[in-house]
Amino acid sequence: MQAWQVHENGEPSEVMRLQEVDRPRPGDGQILLTVRAANINFPDALLCRGQYQVRPPLPFTPGVEICGETEDGRRVIANPVLPFGGFAEYAVADAAAVLPAPDALDDAEAAALHIGYQTGWFGLHRRAGLEAGETLLVHAAAGGVGSAAVQLGKAVGATVIGVVGGAGKAAVARELGCDVVIDRHAQDVVAAVKEATGGRGVDVVYDPVGGDAYTQSTKVVAFEGRIVVVGFAGGSIPSPALNHALVKNYSILGLHWGLYNTKNPKLVQHCHEQLTALAARGAIKPLVSERVPLSGAAAAVQRVADGVTTGRVAVVPGNRASA
Question: Are 230 and 146 in contact (CB under 8 A)?
Fold first, then answer.
């Protein structure tokens, strides 16, 4: 089979190689899946760079989120077990962790439903307790993680403010349903948020960026507001001033979604049921901006790493890229 492999750490476009390799053999409790579509996540770039919290032995195939097909023809969503990741014709997954792909979504959309939307659901509902009528601020609102949070925030009845970088991404954020869109390249984020909220600030901040975005969040979070920290795509990990959290009376909430797979897997299943229901009524639909063939995976991972994409980019093996 064909698979992209990383033999040394570095930038995705430099270290990912498309090779002919043996089809992986599932271990105990695992199943072999035909990859119908693989969604690109920022962690795929971190894996290539050797900067992710999980470091599979070299060589490995990246691709942490797929829509696959079982040997008996079921369409499922899975997180492949590394080193046999999703940027290949076949991948391996834990049988107990696969989830049925929603009928309302095509392969690429289903592949993009799992990590980003589960992270959004746990962050906004389980951790922050976002309620209808509250105001949600989403950093990187046109990206894969941010776009999911925007849709989930609108689904619960929140007012959503999206922060993006550039006019093109601003247009995408508006199409996603943001009530207010702020272009950080052209506007003062703090001033714009305060103007949009009448000086009150926002109830919940969803931050997959870190760095300056986190600093801005602390300046616009409202009384009893919650800042949900889900990642550091900006590359800088902030050091929070806890005295500031005390004085302004806000909460800083960390979210590592992967822990729920081991700490409370039943809640992951419950979340998937909620997401499937939302997809069925059209309340959420992953924004897949590109569908690329397997041969284009390395370049596509690099574009995601460079932050120049919107929504999700899906790698579609075989003849499905044009579907």
Answer: no
Q: Which of 97, 99, 125, 139 is nearest to 258 (CA)?
A: 97
Q: How far apart are CA 2 and CA 225, in angstroms?
A: 48
Residue found under tokens 């599979």: 56
Q: Rounded to an integer, what distance in angstroms lies between the CA atom of residue 32 and that of residue 216?
A: 45
Q: From 141, 149, 23, 27, select the one nearest 91 (Cα to Cα).
A: 23
Q: Give burial (CB, 10 Å; 0-12/13-18/19+) of 177.
A: middle
Tokens of 157: 């009845």
DSSP 80-92: --TTB-SSBSEEE
pTM more than 0.90: yes
Using a pLDDT cut of 70, give the percent of the chain over it.
98
User: In this structure, how many other beta carbons lie within 10 angstroms of the beta carbon of residue 254?
Assistant: 10
pLDDT number for residue 236: 87
Cα–Cα separations (whole angstroms), residue 109 to 22, 48, 67, 187, 267: 28, 24, 9, 32, 22
Amino acid identity for residue 264 in this structure: N
Q: Is the Cβ–Cβ distance between 131 and 204 less than 8 Å?
A: no
Q: Is the four-CA dihedral 288, 293, 294, 300 of positive or negative sign?
A: negative
Question: Which regions of 65-212 does DSSP assign to beta strands (E)?
Answer: 66-69, 75-78, 90-94, 99-100, 135-139, 159-164, 180-183, 202-207
Written as six digits, the tokens of 165 are: 């970088």
What gap in Å lies between CA 84 and CA 56, rounded to an integer?
A: 10
Instruction: Using DSSP, state whether 160 is helix, strand or coil.
Output: strand
Name the more confident of 234 and 51.
51
DSSP label at residue 78:
E
Compute the residue count for the chain: 323
Q: How far apart are CA 204 and CA 252, in angstroms?
A: 10
β-strand pairing of 99-100 with 75-78: antiparallel
CA distance 143 to 173: 9
| CA–CA separation, 257 and 260 (whole Å) | 6
Report pLDDT for 210: 93
Q: Which helix (H) or strand (E) holds 36?
A: strand 30-39
CA distance 113 to 115: 6
